[in-house]
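quick one, 451 residues, struct below
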Amino acid sequence: MAENHYPLEPLFGKILSPFERFLKQTTSGGIVLMCMTLLTLIVASSPWGDPYRHLWEIPIRIGAGSYNIEMSLHVWVNEGLMTLFFLLVGLELKREIMVGELASLRNAALPVAGALGGMLTPALIYFLLNPSGPASAGWGVPMATDIAFSVGILVLLAWRIPKNLIIFLTALAIADDLGAVLVIALFYTQTIVVPLLGIAAVLLSVLVLFNRGGIRHPLPYAVLGILLWLALLKSGIHATLAGVLLAFTVPARPIYTPHQFEAKLDDMRDAFHKETINCTDDLPRGITSMSAIAENVEKASCAVQSPQQRMEHNLSPWVTFGIIPLFAMANAVLDVLAMPFREVIVKPITLGVILGLVLGKFIGITSFAWLSVKIGLSTLPGGVGWRHVMGAAWLGGIGFTMSLFIGQLAFAGRPSQFEEVRIGVMIASLISATLGLVWLYLSARKSTITR
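---
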């Protein structure tokens, strides 16, 4: 065995490997989000609560001269950084529709039916409790499922539940995200400025033209994506939708097919083999040529991956461990100690959100999924029973990120009502997470005993 001339390399490998594994775990995003939410609640309920709230209202200006945008730090997170969250959502949606669980009508029917029931039933429950007045605007709040929290908790029980249940809930949450995006686009827009909306349509058309024309470099999409965001920001339609629209124009096909990539690798392997003939272990004489071959291998590896795949891979950790926790820090600012829970919890908005997320999600997901199977549109995934679907339906009531986002839009300029939404979302998410975790744990244990 050759002597290792770099003794520190294995040491750093041991340090980095656990962290890299942590990043790759599905549960890690939900764990980080939960920790940041708890930390925010603690700070907001402490003597530092008021300075912390003022921190998010600091105005930040970007631009020069008369061409600038000024918004508070809170708004920059909600309308700026969250656009990248919606970009990732759009990329995930596109992938699932093209090659994932939503690609086949038969496979998509069950999660889509569950997602549809999980949106309509909570909205109906909320509307029954808030049929009129300003409070009725919050009907979209209990429609959303938080994918990071719900799937993260489900993965904690991966050793006790069928793997197909995780795939089902993931597909359901992604379909739910699509529904939430449509709700935001259709029902939570401000006064529309038609000329700017026309500019946005032109930019979107150019992006589609880039896609159809075979442009694979990310820079043109990034530049036009920023311009699209600016146009939507000023047009009255919520700017974060630019992320979803941009995602659907990012190319899903790579430059090289698998056969072309294999042929390229064969050519470069032969070239590399020729160079090794003239090499020694310590100092390759053809080091320049070998470096060029290595660079070509790296370029070919990128060329066999689609821009959509690379963008989703690169964006995911930033959104999961940066943007979503920042969103929680900016929107979960709730003074728990000063909040009169007994008074707030019985208010129609809070009650509508809690009952919509907890009961509405469970009833809607379970009943629509059952109906889909009953009429022959779909079948249960292998190894998944109805007790598993019901457990996943409880977890569907965790609506943290998207529910707070919709609540922010529904009650813009009405902080007291948004406060009721925040309390309702947090209580409902805690109840749903507990019920889902206990339900799946006990049902899996019961099935093991009966076997």
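The longest strand covers residues 59-64.
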